[in-house]
Amino acid sequence: MSVNQQAHTGPPYGQPQPGYQGYQQPAYGGQSLPGVPRSQYGAYNGPMPEYQQPVPPQGSLRAPPTSGAPPPASGASHPSGHLAYSQFEHGDVQNGIPASAAPMQRPPASQPFLPGSGSTPVSQPSAFQQYGPPPASVQQLSNHMAGMTIGTATASAPPPAGLGYGPPTSVPPVSGSFSPPGSGLYTPYSATQGPPPTSVPQGLPVAQPPFPGQTVSTQRLPTQVPGFAPPPPSTGVGPSSYPPTTGAPRPPAMPGPPLPGQTLAGPPSSQPNHVTSPPPPSALAGLHPGPPMSGLHGPPPPTHPPQPGYQMQQNGSFGQVRGPQPNYGGAYPGTPNYGSPPGPPPPPKRLDPDSIPSPQLNELPPQQKPRHRIDPDAIPSPIQVIEDDRSNRGSEPFVTGARGQVPPLVTTNFLVKDQGNASPRYIRCTSYNIPCTSDMAKQSQVPLAAVIKPLATLPPEETLPYLVDHGESGPVRCNRCKAYMCPFMQFIEGGRRFQCCFCSCVTEVPPHYFQHLDHTGKRVDFYDRPELSLGSYEFLATVDYCKNNKFPSPPAFIFMIDVSYNAVKSGLVRLICEELKSLLDYLPREGNMEESAIRVGFVTYNKVLHFYNVKSSLAQPQMMVVSDVADMFVPLLDGFLVNVNESRTVITSLLDQIPEMFADTRETETVFAPVIQAGLEALKAAECAGKLFIFHTSLPIAEAPGKLKNRDDRKLINTDKEKTLFQPQTSFYNNLAKDCVAQGCCVDLFLFPNQYLDVATLGVVPYQTGGSIYKYAYFQLETDQDRFLNDLRRDVQKEVGFDAVMRVRTSTGIRATDFFGAFYMSNTTDVEMAGLDCDKTITVEFKHDDKLSEDSGALLQCALLYTSCAGQRRLRIHNLSLNCCTQLADLYRNCETDTLINYLAKYAYRGVLSSPVKTVRDALINQCAQILACYRKNCASPSSAGQLILPECMKLLPVYLNCVLKSDVLQPGPEVTTDDRAYIRQLVTSMDVAETNVFFYPRLLPLTKADVDSDSLPAAIRNSEERLSKGDIYLLENGLNIFVWVGVSVQQGLIQNLFGVSSFGQISNTLSALPVLENPFSKKVRSIVDMLQGQRSRYMKLIIVKQEDKLEMLFKHFLVEDKSLSGGASYVDFLCHMHKEIRQLLS
Ligand SMILES: [Zn+2]
């Protein structure tokens, strides 16, 4: 290899642009002809009047909903050649770039989606029900049954129309058969704004469950008396007040027997949510004894009995679903699950739990009164809630037709059918029924937020968003607010105009887009156009949406490898180079393109940077060294960014040589900012967006811009200066990030620290450019390479968009006010991301700016403008309609606690940047207490102050909130480093709801209960030490780690089968993977581990923990229902504390 030190010369590249092959959209039904030379940009200048008659789709992935769609029904009304429409005022386009005077035209042909068609999509028909009556899902029904009614709105609700998504009463049944568009058959779609009038859709269960948050029965929060009394035998006692006896049939004495026919699952339950029966008044004072722990935790340390070993649980069962949890609407033995499988339609009658007598303390046998501790089985169980949702909602697809439907939990496997609203995989909300007024919202303190994952990966059974091409005129948009055409736009005047569902402005329908309306006012091509009938779809963007009015080039990936002493010595450099040789064959490609359009480049660095020329015509790669890091530039024009296949020989040679070249390096110092600058300059010169993959090992202390000093200081913890640990130590990186975003330069950072390297500062650029950070502390080849390589492979291959701008529009009355995630904002509305991958999530908060109405509901439209991996400019649109309410009970009935926690965690994790951690924690507790107090005051029926009453949908709020409060960011244990906290803080900020759910409340599985003959997982158990048996082996995962915990008394045979050693003492706790052994137990456990790894966006680190070994402390940190070493409260204690806070608010 030739090396030349190059001076600061060299104009930016004049590298030829590789054409715009990206626009062929192969996978999307567009004509992609493999082997056909890519058309150059110029080819698109041809006339394109006939866009409505595109080539029939070929790809199956995104075939239009209409298979073999014929030409538009109203072909005559598609005047060809109508090009410019005045309403496209791009100058004001939020997501676009001001229109150029001479917009480029694009080829008609590539348009995959065929407007107008005679044949109707098979899948559409059912869709129709969206406008029908309540898809009373089974589960919902049962929920209702278990709940109570407040308010009268639903009182007149007719009996739910059967199960599932049965035909609407007011609409012709739609079973499978579907009449062609234009038939006018579908009357229900009413004129005003699309969706059904909502609010009180007669008993639309989904949207408006007839019952207020089913107040779950109350568990007792009895006085806490030191000492522990075993649960009394509970025969003949109302289940709602006693711990279950395993397997015991439902007590006959249950008051308020379920109505005939009703699928009531819970016992009198009905009150399952009242968490308690009131303790005797005299006992109330003693309810929260003990000094508040740092003012936050109420009761004294849990009075858990000493646990000699891990004795069996009271109910003696491990692994299986523990006995029914009274009062949680959980299934009692012998009681059918809520409604699943679908049973007979329940009677139209609802229960008012408050009207059902529940056993009060004074009704109980005297000997049972004294309760010495709260029975953990008597407080809301995450496991039970998750199991119930799975059994109730896992079997039916979630059809998104109706407004304001609360989706199944993220822990439930379900299929989604898009019938007009975005899938919950793209958007989840804290509530699907939002208060009409700002006052109501403030009163409840329930944050209104949406967690949006615009490029989420869908399971193979679901359809990717269709790509719609409107030719050179681009997407049809509202004249005023620029909202994109969507199912909620209302066509008027025979279809010549449409009224915007967001701002009410009336806009002309462009001639090429005109279509007749049927007698219900719906366009006859409704089902043929994704943008009229689906919640999510994409538009091909025109040149007006491109930077500098120029279509983008395909993006580039630049691999930048630290070759300082530590990196070389650990074997990391060699590992990366070896891996890249094969990984480069798996760069993201679009649809069925034969090869990726992404170009690659390589840089190595320590105190200086080395650029490599890997032009295909070279026999050997050439190195160019830039030692003047103060003013970074790219020393070579041609040959830096190349096509992998063309330059394969040279690249392979380079990757072979790099480890050798630096094998004897003595250089320990590194630079960091100049590395990013170099990548940025290279992308600028190539006039493309792209991603930098930086592999870095140490604090950049070498003399250079962005040089850092070690400022770690754990003494700052719990002081007012603690926030500085989360802040970058210089603003240099913020400015650099801004430049990167402007260029579409996304940074993914792989860190391999052996000591503090200031993640808070190094993470600024990855964070603000939409990139990712991976951290492998004390990296060791043997134990960490699998994890690193799996992460790298996934990171390189995953779907990603570049140069992205996201805007969320809302209907009048609310607006997006705050945003959380990895991005940059230069104004108050546009979320800019140099890169956005399929795992990245943005949480958006909404506030009222006016009144909302129950009739029109509220709408969200998320528009993401981005460049695909093939260089195609696109707009991805997600729409979601929500209900609005004038009754607080409706709000509480339609909340999603997992989403709420996602928002609250992100809110708190941002708060630590500017406020003392204690302030942040107190604010969280206060807000949640207010949320629950408001419910108690306004929605629950009067009851003793000694009762803790939780809304059904929020009964896990206390336990989950406690997990957030105890997390490393808000309450670090002694083993948590400053870098760990900064890392976790940034990581959580981009997490989706499923990730935050398992991160804060890990999944704990008893492996020894696994059925080796089935594919299923053993039933999860609650995260508490008292649930562990020393004779069993457990797995705990939280999205970042997998622990395998082995009890001291595990049978020798099991140990032999799983670890291949003959005794507990011989198990090595340094294993990073389970040995591959040929026996059913080993296979089963390894398949579980593999399955879990496949579900998470990062490869989890496997840690073997032996009971009573020192690593067990680390493991116990994740048993989040227990008191933590760092002072975090146990679940029981925290629940008592919340109760106290609520009572103070109410008094
Ligand atoms: Zn508008």
From TrEMBL:
GO terms for biological process: COPII-coated vesicle cargo loading; intracellular protein transport. Keywords: Cytoplasm, Cytoplasmic vesicle, Endoplasmic reticulum, ER-Golgi transport, Membrane, Metal-binding, Phosphoprotein, Protein transport, Transport, Zinc. Residues 552-796 form the Sec23/Sec24 trunk domain. InterPro entries: ADF-H/Gelsolin-like_dom_sf, Beta-sandwich_Sec23_24, Gelsolin-like_dom, Gelsolin-like_dom_sf, Sec23/24_helical_dom, Sec23/24_helical_dom_sf, Sec23/24_trunk_dom, SEC23_SEC24_subfamily. It is a peripheral membrane protein. Residues 10-31, 166-184, 235-248 have a biased composition (Low complexity). Residues 117-129 have a biased composition (Polar residues). Its main location: cytoplasm. It holds the Pfam family Gelsolin. GO terms for molecular function: SNARE binding; zinc ion binding. Residues 1017-1088 form the Gelsolin-like domain. Residues 1-138, 159-382 are annotated as: Disordered. Residues 475-513 form the Zinc finger Sec23/Sec24-type domain. GO terms for cellular component: COPII vesicle coat; cytosol; endoplasmic reticulum exit site; endoplasmic reticulum membrane. Residues 801-884 form the Sec23/Sec24 beta-sandwich domain. It is found in: Cytoplasm, Cytosol; Cytoplasmic vesicle, COPII-coated vesicle membrane; Endoplasmic reticulum membrane. Residues 897-996 form the Sec23/Sec24 helical domain. Residues 249-260, 298-308, 339-348 have a biased composition (Pro residues). Belongs to the SEC23/SEC24 family. SEC24 subfamily. This is Protein transport protein Sec24C isoform X3.
